[in-house]
Amino acid sequence: MRRFAPLFGALLLAAEVSFASYNLDQVMQELENREKTMTAIQFDFNQEINFIQMNSTTTVVGEALFGQAGKLRITKESPDNQITISDGKTVWVYNPAAKQVWEGSAKKWLESSAMPKGMVPLNNYVTDLRENFNLSLAAGASDPAGDVRILAEPKNKELGYKIELTVSTESWLPVKTIYVSDSAEVRTLLSKHQVNPSAPDSVFRFSAPKGTDVIPFN
């Protein structure tokens, strides 16, 4: 699946169209308008991962920053500290406790990553959703809180998963995602969004601290 291509011009107030009247075309157009206003986005996330076959659950908490052209910085604070950084060409996955960093091609990492496309509103993600997914609004998709739920199933059935995106009609940003496959269900809450935060290129680069083992992964 094409990658973030990551993780939504003027912002239209939800009052302009009643919540119940949104159809899929309107929702996708609003998301595309929002995407055009953005060069970067930062948010906190709380992710509950249920490994179905193993009958076990883990919770991941952290912060993510996505820029254009594949730049990203994802900091996992728990259960273990891990920092994933990419300048769009190279990706580094740094584990401070183990004093190890995995390094390799960002393109190959994204292609093999379990993180599904459509979660981050940058880098033509609306186009990707339209081209690579069968989309629909969930029944009763508009709720009193002013959110809409988009169901996305890959056109390539062999991928074997589906995604549900909950989007705020006030900000036209994702506030919740649900990823379901045969092996796992991943529920992610996104909060404290910052659109176009200051993000110098230096935050998307990594230099291994002294004593860190550098391990190529592709």
Description:
By secondary structure, this protein is mainly beta. It has a domain at about 15-60 and about 115-205: outer membrane lipoprotein receptor (LolB), chain A, CATH 2.50.20. The protein is about 15% helix and about 45% strand. It is built from 3 helices and 12 strands. It has helices at about 25-35, 105-110, 125-130, and strands spanning about 40-50, 55-65, 70-80, 80-85, 90-95, 100-105, 135, 145-155, 160-170, 175-180, 185-195, 215. A 12-stranded mixed beta sheet has the order 7-8-9-10-11-1-2-3-4-5-6-12. A hairpin with a 3-residue loop joins strand 3 (about 70-80) and strand 4. It is globular and about 60 Å long. The two termini are about 20 Å apart. The model is unreliable at about 1-20 (pLDDT under 50).
Notable characteristics:
218 residues; single chain; outer membrane lipoprotein receptor (LolB), chain A; 43% strand
Topology:
Blueprint: H1 24-36, E1 41-51, E2 56-66, E3 71-78, E4 82-87, E5 90-95, E6 100-105, H2 106-112, H3 125-132, E7 133-137, E8 147-154, E9 161-168, E10 174-181, E11 184-195, E12 213-216
Parallel strand pairs: 6-12
Antiparallel strand pairs: 1-2, 1-11, 2-3, 3-4, 4-5, 5-6, 7-8, 8-9, 9-10, 10-11
Based on the structure given, which CATH architecture of the domain at 14-60 and 116-205 is correct?
A: Clam
Low-confidence stretches: 1-20
- Report how far the terminal alpha carbons are from each other: 18 Å
User: What do the pLDDT scores average to?
Assistant: 84
**Shape summary:** globular
Give the strand content: 35-45%
Q: What is the number of helical segments per DSSP (H or I, 4+ residues)? A: 3
Report the CATH C-level class of the domain at 14-60 and 116-205. Mainly Beta
CATH homologous superfamily descriptor of the domain at 14-60 and 116-205: Lipoprotein localisation LolA/LolB/LppX
Order of helices and strands: HEEEEEEHHEEEEEE
Topology-level CATH name of the domain at 14-60 and 116-205: outer membrane lipoprotein receptor (LolB), chain A
Give the fraction of residues assigned to helices: 10-25%
**What characterizes the major β-sheet?**
12 strands, mixed
Briefly note the structural class of the backbone: mainly beta
The number of E-state strands comes to 12
Alpha-carbon Rg, integer = 18 Å
Which strands sit side by side, in order, in the main sheet? 7-8-9-10-11-1-2-3-4-5-6-12
